[in-house]
Every structure is written in C-alpha cells, then in structure tokens.
Amino acid sequence: MPEIEQVSENALFGKYEVGKLLGCGAFAKVYHARDVQTGKSVAIKIINKKKISSPSLIANIKREISIMRKLNHPYIVKLIEVLASKTKIYCVMEYVKGGELFTKIAKGRFSEDLSRKYFRQLISAVGYCHLRGVFHRDLKPENLLLDENGNLKVSDFGLSAVRDQIQLDGLLHTLCGTPAYVAPEILVKKGYDGAKIDVWSCGIILFVLAAGYLPFNDPNLMAMYKKIYKGEFRCPKWMSTDLKRFLSRLLDTNPETRITIDEILKDPWFKQGKHKEINFYDEEFNKDDERKDEELASTSLNAFDIISFSSGLNLSGLFDDSYNVVEDGERFVSTESPEDLVKRAEEFAKEERLRVRRRKEWGLEMEGQDGNLMLLVEIRRLTDTLFVVEATRNGGDAGCYKEIWKNKLKPVIFNGLISTNSAVNDD
C-alpha cells in the first residue's frame, strides 16, 4: 500500500496520521487515523473515484455524505468532515473501537436486559433519523458498532433514503437491504414505507440479540423469502411472554398494523427497568447543534463546504475536478490574514470609486460602475493558517463583474492565494 505509507509519513492534509487498515470494499477502504492536533483517533473512509463509474454509485455516495453530515446523535457514528483530492474522497468519521455488535452476538445470545439496552439505543437512533426524514434501509448487527463504553453506534448509511425519494404514491420503490433482514413488503415490489421497513429490521435485530439466531433462515433463499412473507417464525422457550408479544408486533407482516416507533416507546417490555426516557422529539440539543453550526459557518469552512460551494447538499464537486470555479463565482485559499486581504480589497475599491459595505467579520459588498457591478467578497477560516476567499456576482452585469473581478481585483488580492484544487493535493 505505497499510497498510505506515504500519507502516514506526511500527515493527510496536514491533519491526520493514517494508520492500519480497518476494512475494505469494492471502491473504498477504511483506515484508523490520528488527529495530529488533538491526538484523538478517527476512522477515515477513502473512496477511490477512479473505481466509481456508475451514476447510481455516485448518487449513493453523495446521498450518504449528505445524510451523515446532518445527523448528530449519541448512537450514530458521526461524520467529522469530508476532504477531497483529484482522485479520492476522504470521509473522516468518529472512530468506534469496540467493533461490530455482530462479533459479540456470535459468541452467544444476550440476556433480555442487555438486549433491551441495545434495542433502546437502536430505537433512539432510528427514531431520530425518521424524524429528520432519513430511512436507513439496511439495519443489521454488522452495521451496529460498539464504543469503548459499550454503547451502540449505527453506521453505514450507504443504502439510506430521504423523503425526497418518496414517489407520488407516498412510498419508496428501490429494492435494497440484506436478505435475512428484509421486510415482506419489499419482496412484493409494490412500494414500501421507509420507516416501517426500518422497524421490521429492528425487530429482526432484537430477535437475534435475545435468541442468538435469525428468526427467518434457510439455505435456500426463496424458501427464506417465503418464510418472511408468511411471517413464519418461532420464539425460543426462554423468552419472556412480554418479549414474545413485542416481537410479534415488530415482525407483523402487515405494514399497516406493524408497531410504530411511538408505540414501541410505550410498550411494557421496552419500558422495563430503570432507563433514561428516550426523547428524540425534544429538539433542545438539536437547536444547540444548529446554533453551533451557524456560528462556525459565519467564519469558517471545511473542505466539504469548499467542494460543495456553499450549497450544503450539492456534492457534484466531489466528482468534478473543476469544482473551484462556478458560474459567476470563484473560490481560493489564502495563507494571508483576513485583515490584510480585506484591507487590499478596500483600497482597490477606493481607487475604482466603488461603494463598499462590510458584511459580518470578513465580508465586503462592492457596488459601482453605474449599477452594473454588484460583487460580494467573503473570507472564512479553513484551518488556523488557511482562509477561503470567495468572490461572487451578487447582481448587475456579468460582463462588468468579469472585467472588474478577473482583470483587476483578483490580481490585486491574488498574492498568497492558491486555487482550492491545490488546497487539497493528491497524496
């Protein structure tokens, strides 16, 4: 692995020392890494763009990143940031060192109390996702990780769907999931409710936790699908009556009568024991996250924002090497202080007799040329030593914008600037 050895010697993007390989797939590898500044462990998923030619794969990757970026929950693996080079995408994620829940289950079934603990954490995460219009669609023990405190973390949103994908009939139609965990309504190919198939998968997971084996299993795939469709399963004798009844509601083959997340929270078996109440409907901690995001957004950017050019969910730049230039806009990275950059821009505006208005801390609006020019220059922090300079036409005439920005202002403030492509060099 010559690429990774080189990266290890020279920290990736100056931020992460890449270590051992944790896992690999057809077009991506996951490595353990260390944040040079904090010393904390992270996991970096490195996606090789050259191995992704299918538009559907590209769409899945964009969707997964978009989804993970907006999820912030104690039982969901956190996406820290996304970086990119000409040939690779780097998804920096929370490192969950406890491994897969699947590995732990393989050693034997859990007690009902331990099964309940993990199931409550799973429902907390899944309910949080559903409230935000995200449906995982591939919940299984292999996609559930455990942290150092023995808490569950939901991972792998590669097959997830969002509300925007729901068709006119109010249903999703993409066939996906893992055979043993797939809901019966997916098998009939008539559309399905993303929330209800996630609840079914949660039911399968709970059965596996408490029984130690799958409720629907057969070496013949079609035979297994028939069992799923008919709902043919038996609970082991050691299960409590409350758990058996609860599982029958989770694994109800009729999605219309299947138990909902709200009903799960009220179920007697689910509520047993002393637990902190699940309140993913309480938006307080989410408001705190939003406030933090807004504060950071006003003065700072990460490479994900550079790639997506402020659009939030437009990830086309991840697969387009020309992402630093867009229509009526351009973005650069500077090693100079924002104060010096703003000063030079203001001096230029004065010489050109342009009206200048400050925006936030490091933003400038310029107007002039008989109303033909409306130019916005904004500077945001990327790292402690790098700042992003973004110029956009805020109105007026496109020709005038190009004349003033490209031929005059850009050369004036260009000293110390590099294109965003250069800011994320290939390893």
Automatic annotation (TrEMBL):
Q: Name one Pfam family in it.
A: NAF
**Where in the numbering of this chain does the Protein kinase domain appear?**
16-270
Q: Which PROSITE patterns match?
A: NAF (PS50816), PROTEIN_KINASE_ATP (PS00107), PROTEIN_KINASE_DOM (PS50011), PROTEIN_KINASE_ST (PS00108)
Q: Which Gene3D superfamilies match?
A: Kinase associated domain 1, KA1 (3.30.310.80), Phosphorylase Kinase, domain 1 (3.30.200.20), Transferase(Phosphotransferase) domain 1 (1.10.510.10)
PANTHER family recorded for this chain? CALCIUM/CALMODULIN-DEPENDENT PROTEIN KINASE KINASE-RELATED (PTHR43895), CBL-INTERACTING SERINE_THREONINE-PROTEIN KINASE 11 (PTHR43895:SF151)
Tell me which family the UniProt entry assigns to this protein: Belongs to the protein kinase superfamily. CAMK Ser/Thr protein kinase family. SNF1 subfamily.
Q: What is this protein called?
A: non-specific serine/threonine protein kinase
Native source organism of the sequence: Populus euphratica (Euphrates poplar)
**Gene encoding this polypeptide?**
LOC105137675
